[in-house]
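Many introductory courses stop at the sequence. We go one step further.
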Amino acid sequence: MEITEVRISLRENEGKRLKAYSTVTFDNSFVVRNIKVIEGNNGLFVAMPARKMKQFCPRCGKKVDVGSQYCNHCGVQLPPPPRDLGENRHATHQDLAHPINQEFRDYLQSKVLDAYHGEKNAPKPEPAKESEEETTEA
């Protein structure tokens, strides 16, 4: 699978870990939005789009975020999160799309980070100056 386009939207928040959002097109046929470029403890990395995991309220049956202490709908205190969350029992988010092997993960990350560095280092266009027109009084 080939990455045919990477678009970067820089974030201007100094001191924040989120540096940019990216939209990646695969084989001119499939788009994944909201891929994040984040400054981690060991440098920049790419985080795939994710959603908050949900659990059901035992009283009203509505979906609530995993880790919530109370139901947003009926107010009952919720039990601790289920223990069947796989390897990461403290997970609160789940990737919507992700690479399934390290080779493609590395390829995706390098393409996104290359585009990020290119966008960050690109010369910024200067704002257009208003033309000063001389007015002649008649």
